[in-house]
Amino acid sequence: MLHIKRISQITLLGAPALEAAPGVIHAFSTRRAEHNEFTLGPNSSTNPAIQINRSRFLAAAGMPGWPLLKLNQTHSGIVRRMVDTGAANEPFEGDAAVTDVRGAALGVQTADCVPILIADRLGRAIAAVHAGWRGAAARIAQNTVYRLVEEYRVSPSDLVAVIGPHNAACCYEVGEDVVEVVGDPESFVRRPDWPKPHFDQALANQRQLRQAGIPERQIIVSNLCTHCRSDLFFSYRREGGRAGRLLAIIGLVP
Ligand SMILES: [Zn+2]
User: At the topology level of CATH, where does 3-252 sit?
Assistant: First the structure.
């Protein structure tokens, strides 16, 4: 479960399991601050209000003034290793990032897709993942765990993963083409009263994280649906191109 906190008038979510990792700081944003339009993206926006919102969110999360390492997210399976803070200025193409750099935040933007934050229980390395159906098809969650193990010699049994708020199986209707591309039929829900299958994005990613070796009890899944909870979240399905962006961030204290 994730808990809701209100810090400096900003409502954000966190998971106790990640807070227990020494030196690891994280947060999932909501749309709520003074007003209900606390958007943190897209990255390409030149709107100064978004830059201010990001700074405020980083500070409220406990990472004041830290550089935010950005990804140009394209629903790919690409995992980037961040070795310095260069990506704070020039975003890297990719949909997941791993690092052991301290004093910088990794972040992924979503508006219905799944944000996943991962940390080593001993605080040696972290990851942030953007995984919608295309990311699930590319097995980006699983590949991010493999990359953490390869780069930082951590054991999957020492990793904690938190699957944040996303468009859940209650609302995420998809076509049969998506079932085919994702290639994991068990992650789709079919009901007689539903004309089309619904994708359980959390389950698909949870299965990949488990297959990569993270124990089930160390995978925390938010039960909040971005489509149902218009009071808390932006949703691309509900709001279309006008939808704001949520940001999930994770960092290691210097
Ligand atoms: Zn829903």
Answer: CNF1/YfiH-like putative cysteine hydrolases (3.60.140)
Indicate the residue type of 168.
Answer: A
| pLDDT tens readout for residues 83-130 | 999 888 888 999 999 999 999 999 999 999 999 999 999 999 999 999
Task: Give residue 228 CA to ligand 1 midpoint distance, Å.
Answer: 4
Beta strands, E only, 37-135: 68-69, 71-72, 79-82, 92-93, 96-99, 105-110, 114-120, 126-131
- Residue extents of the structural domains in the chain: 3-252
Cα(81) to ligand 1 centroid in Å equals 33
User: What are the E-state strand segments in the chain?
Assistant: 3-7, 10-14, 24-29, 68-69, 71-72, 79-82, 92-93, 96-99, 105-110, 114-120, 126-131, 159-163, 188-189, 198-199, 219-221, 246-252
- pLDDT the model gives residue 176: 97
| Statement: the pTM of the whole predicted model exceeds 0.85 | yes
